[in-house]
User: Fold these one by one.
Assistant:
Number 1:
Amino acid sequence: MKTKNELIKLREKYLSPSLSLSYDVPLYITKGRGQYLFDQKGKKYLDCINNIQHIGHSHPRILNTAYKQFKELNTNTRYLDENIINYAQDLVKTVPKNLEICFFTNSGSESNDLALRLARQMTGCKETIVFDGAYHGHLISLIEISPYKYKGKGGMVPPNYVYEIPMPDQFRGKYRGRNSTNYYLKELEKSISKIKSKNRIPIFIYESFMGCGGQLVLPIHFLKKAQDRIHEAGGICIADEVQIGFGRIGTHFWGFEYYEVEPDIVTLGKSIGNGHPLSVVITSRKVANKFHNGMEYFNSFGGNPVSAAIGHEVLRVIKEEKLQQNASLVGSSLKSMLIELKNVHDVIGDVRGEGLFLGIEIVDDKKSLKPLTKTAKIIVNKMKDHGVLLSTDGPENNVIKIKPPMVFNSANAEFLIESLQSVFSKI
Ligand code: PMP
């Protein structure tokens, strides 16, 4: 077995320098089970950040499903196959009735790129409205519409068809508080007007709960009104559920349902395959038919029998193990405990989120809201020493993210709080 230092050196030699490693002292993880990870020495960590291993690391039902299907057959969508059909049938039952056609892809980025293609085909336009701070993927088409990337290090000026509106951050955004909906709506309307003045049609892509934006919950009526405005202009709305879907927010299965909206296109990824590279775009027959312009849509891996079987099993496990209910129950008690912690520690400016998608924003004090980026990083590193894995994000990188596998339980929540208490008391 290679040592940690050997691995670091070999990474430097063979892997892209653009990859990053978490924590000041990187971890060498060799085993995962449920909500736990184990390093090369057997030290156990409570995983509070891996929203990809949605139903838990190394879930036996996924291992068995993958083994069974791999042993039998793995081809592509050019043959008839029951796996993809059975899965699609069950998947569309989870979304609004109008969304009935599935496209199978292999990553969140690929889904969002395809969603843009569908929307562009539908509108005949590329004009895209995005939230500042949003991240929608690593392909060229998505870096271009992701302020999180194009405004960051190594970024560039976005193309002129990208229209950015302020991140609807009720805590430190351009407009603050629960009543900020109309202000953000005005910003959206300004972008729609500009697009209309060029005789173009808007595409609006959004994350209902912003992950990379810092675990943001949108002002409650914003999304419904925003979608109405886009539709009035003949436009298309894409809900990016890559990070938040599949019951994570507890109250609802999908993030957009929380705001009672029905998008035209939904993109799924990450948790959908519990770590297996699978993703999906779901849309209406109308949008799918418009896309069907004679050019074949073929994807070598997308929707292959193994991927479809795994995706279907993940969906069944979420239901049978009542993981959405668990996210709701454990998440709400965890949030209450975090709010109690906030009342004691001045550096906790805000606690937000729903279910097992929570954020703690670290600030200098509750009046100035000066972001404490370094402190947030120190907290995350110290938590690692306590055996708890967390990460930071948001435009100021001062939001500690909590988005564990959905099997996270009450004892885990209590352990997380005790560890945070211990770390915060020494800050
Ligand atoms: N959309 C969102 C909201 C994401 O968080 C991510 C990944 N962090 C993506 C898209 C891209 O997904 P992937 O890394 O699977 O390409």
Number 2:
Amino acid sequence: MTERHSPLASGAATILLTGGAGYLGSHTCVALTQAGYQPVILDDFSNSDPVVLDRLEQLLGQPTPCVRGSTADTKLVADTLKQHKAAAVVHLAGFKAVGESVAEPLKYYANNLGGMLSLLQAMASTDCRTLVFSSSATVYGDPATVPITEDFPLSHTNPYGHSKLVCEDMLAALRHANPGWQTGVLRYFNPVGAHPSGLIGENPRGTPNNLMPLLAQVAAGLRPHLDIYGQDFATPDGTGVRDYIHVQDLAQGHVAALRALLAGQPSFTVNLGTGRGQSVLEMVKAFEVASGRSVPWRLAPRRQGDVASCFADTTLAERLLGWRATRALHEMCADAWRWQLSLSGQTQPTPIGRPGSRPP
Ligand code: WQD
């Protein structure tokens, strides 16, 4: 276990942020810190790079304490919770690639379910019973209609989605057994984009699974074209429709959820989306405008498991958390493009404002 120390701001509520060096984790770390909390990162770097910690320090003007390890190490988690007197946990650590979960189900059940079980045991043993959990719109399976509300039927079409569903059920059983548990379950739609500084963003290993990093790589000339998986769906232009949400909005959603729980809000499950659906062809066009580059594409067969249309009804998160997504599609594409250019060394990242300054 290696820990990076930093003077924890006195009075700031300390939050254990699992997976805090990852794509959503790093953006949530910035948002939590700028909201006055003190995150302590727990990350095994199985799907993230320690260099993110240096980028976070550049952005925040101070190092974020980080413990290298897995949520599966119950003693490590318990010791960390005790040492830092954590007020709550934001649990983002987990594998999230649908296709990989179909090929390697045991890897997903072991990591996503085993990690959650061990985390909850560590939390119970240290009397830390406030949890924000990263779930996914994948738990809605193939919705009969859109937009999707939180009371829609739940189902799973792959081990990744199944692991999220089982984690949600574990939390429901825990709340039933002990009302002292407070949980905020956040069902993400499609996270995209990057911090406007270009210092942190999505950095998938190998071939990306998701549309946005692929658009960026085609625009950057790293791939010859995009394969569009089907143009015969029951959607306006025949291509798949999704609810793309800026990762900065998603990070703010975690702050709002944590703030609500710490203020005594009863446990909740909410959608975190924009409430708007965009097709693949609309995303191609938006990315070409944002990058000033062409994005050649060719039609390919449908991808197994893809649904036609999936986007959120966001009224519950607005009502319970006073949160809604504010960033538009062009910002998502522009920030993703800036990040792609900094990844490929074509532009220097520029920290926004003075380190540690509040967001504009
Ligand atoms: C979006 C659209 C594809 C790639 C997944 C997970 C979900 C969440 C987000 C974690 C679809 C089309 C894509 C390509 C394409 N992950 N597409 N060509 O599948 O909606 O959601 O990622 O929380 O849980 O299921 O996202 O970006 O893979 O696909 O045409 O090369 O783009 O068919 O319509 P998806 P995606």
Number 3:
Amino acid sequence: MCGIFGITGHVEASNLTYLGLHALQHRGQESAGIVSSDGHGLRAHRQMGLVADIFDAPVLAGLPGQSAIGHVRYSTAGGSLLKNAQPLFVQYAGGQCAIAHNGNLINAAALKEKLEADGAIFQSDADTEVIMHLLARSKQPTFEQKLVEALRKVEGAYSLLVLTENKLVAVRDPLGIRPLVLGRMKEGAYVLASETTALDLIEAELVRELEPGEVLVIENGVLRTSKPFAEPARLGRCIFEQVYFARPDSVLFGSSVYEVRKRMGMQLAREQPVPAADLVIAVPDSGVAAAIGFSQQSGIPYDVGLIRSHYVGRTFIEPQQSIRHFGVKLKLSAVKHVLKGKRVVVVDDSIVRGTTSRKIVKMLKAAGATEVHLRISSPPTKWPCFYGIDTPSRQELIAASHTTDEIARYVTADSLGYISIEGLGEAVGDADRGSFCTACFSGQYLLGEMAPGAPEQSKLTA
Ligand code: AMP
């Protein structure tokens, strides 16, 4: 997963890109980068770490020009290394070019092998570099035609921003897997971002979402749009963006993420009611909207039973062995006065390995909850994602090899209930499930990837 942001036609392009990336930080915390163009040449700064730690006034001053693109990275292909930080930036026969990619290409390894056999030298392990090589080798006459020819060869998920000396190009893959929106600032600058929350921060107005398969070129303030790819039979917007990944204040695939998550919680309460409970709490922050929906639908009061620390970074190294369980406590702490003697419904967005849920249930009981009923606003996660969500292999996905009852026992919950795939489809406004990818829950992959074989039984040990 990653976040991308781009702007053209503004004297403060790199400063605004910095702010846009800040708003998209939840989409990736490993590395960040900005490439700017002053119309003659491109300048780049990329570093490991968080946006606010990487960029300061002198760094941004070194990124001049009226156009810029930026990227926050959460590695799904290629290791968490500086060489894989984006935007990728190259000089080729046609000039300078930078590219920021959100998504995952499923045929990158095969393409890379062919290119390397042909003498190409790769500088990163990121699947995105394949696009650069294909573009540089294209014999097409114009930059856009080269880019389109390159993209016709790749398969998978890509929302892209490409910057040259004088153009900003935005592309969404034909299945529309990852989001990308177009906005406009009062002064006339055009902005592109993974999520609308980045537009809100810089007071840009949402113009529209890019269409699946759309190529949008902005040059000298003029927009040119085309749809050069074959139309697929169906769309594959990532349903996990709505479940977990996007920020609740964003409008995603045309719907408010907050409203959709609340509807998931209401649907969950209808499908998996808890007959007798005193309060509904959320696992913050990802479970909050669904917990409020669950409370409103069930009539069970909502309260704050868990507090999340905002100062725990992903870089935190857990202590070893005996004090290892402190890990989740650093992130979440229980409010004893709320929980003591109460029968609690706790709502979270997903169970992946099951380790977090187990720690949370134990924490709630240790804080005095007499019963803990766990409700999950997505169906059991049974299949890995090949399109850019960082899910582990099938062996590590607890629901791939265990029943709901077994998982309930493992996490030590008094009961466990998940929303159904159909119910989730209702909540996202796609009842016939024709426009969302649900592969992580259903195993029905968009591009006919071979579903991995039966998983080995994972071991449920503490
Ligand atoms: P687990 O302990 O593996 O079951 O983790 C489940 C928790 O991780 C839930 O609270 C989710 O909100 C969160 N989560 C789900 N998917 C992801 C992801 N791709 N990256 C990071 N966290 C996730």
